[in-house]
Amino acid sequence: MHLAVIGLSHRTAPVEIRERLSIPEQTMEVSLRELRGDEQVLEASILSTCNRLEIYTLLRHPELGISAVGSFLSRHSGLGVAELEPHLFTYHHEEAVAHLLRVSAGLDSLVLGEGQILSQVKKMVRLGQEHRSVGPILNRLMNQAVSTGKRVRTETNLGTGAVSISSAAVELAQLKVGQARGLDQLVSLEDEQVAVVGAGRMARLLLQHLASKGCRGVVLLNRTVQRAEQMAADIPALPVQCRPIDDLDHCLSTCSLVFTSTAAEEPIIDATRLGPLNRRSSLMLVDIGVPRNIAADVSALSGVQRFDVDDLQEVVNRNQEARREMAQEAEAMLAEESRLFLEWWDGLEAVPVLNRLRRQLEDIRESELQKALSRMGPDFSARERKVVEALSKGIINKILHNPVTQLRAPQSRQQRHASMRALSELFDLHEGPDEV
Fold this sequence. Notes:
The protein has helices spanning 15-21, 28-36, 62-77, 81-84, 94-105, 116-130, 136-155, 165-180, 201-212, 225-233, 248-254, 271-274, 313-320, 324-347, 351-376, 382-408, 413-427, and strands at 2-9, 41-48, 52-59, 89-92, 194-197, 218-222, 240-244, 257-260, 283-287, 304-307.
């Protein structure tokens, strides 16, 4: 068995590639079933966010398994393997474990210390369990990643005031509005007519940050107005008008700043839609959806500025340096958590030998118990039989305690293999046909 992760992120692929590989929750079951349908993939789980698509796997054979996952990504995205390869990363065993822990802790995020990624890892765990694509290995690893992410945020200051994708998008708008006024600094958004399209988690965070940055009011558009109204009610400090998505053209005509964050798989705003509108002289569009909600062709229109998640790096760099010392403290925790998982993994090597020893001792126990019971005669009560059987099982467990403890304890692989060979030779523990 072999642990591996294959995928891409904001570090390796532009948004136009990432959006081709995005897997929405409604199709996750189909994707996981397709992955698990390959004989090389024993367990699989998928992390799909606006900045990454990563597939965590337990494989029979590393090369064949990675090839199978690469073929899946090619089919899903419609991109050739050669076209995808420059953007993909692959980590094996120790590196795969370390990578997941860093992701969960927010150390691999576009915004260092981002909090939202932990909830996305939790979602990956839940979907893997619901769709039965994970087994004991990945389940253990992913749950440890979640607990590690929580520990980092509890025991360090990395999560304090951490910038999210949504807050970075608001800061980008502040910066660009300032630059339009000849200022190289963040400015208040109090003079902007602002609209937010979508009513998901990212949109909620957008509203919260807009409220803190001087915004005087927002138009919130969503397919379901009731959902938008429920969200607006949670942010009383910000006046919010809730409208149906059908009012989008009106908002594009009257607003100066529009944020989009929807689950649409195709752009909802493009040059064909935007061009004919009788709109303001200037319009800034900030798109934090992946796949993108705003087509690239709108940038060719006069007076229109378009930004997407890849443009957030400009404001992220302003906040990154102050967080690097906190990240170093978190790295030490990740090293400890990684060691704990790998020690548990290494201990699994001994399981087949210990199982064979247990079966051998159990066969002896059962055989000798039946002989003893047959000699006791009919006067031996059912209760007495249970007591004798429990006694025999207790003896077996006591005999097994030390071998199990020693072989599962942290030690070098060489030491463990030597102990396993000695145990196998002493008790003549040959592999069964189902273990080959």
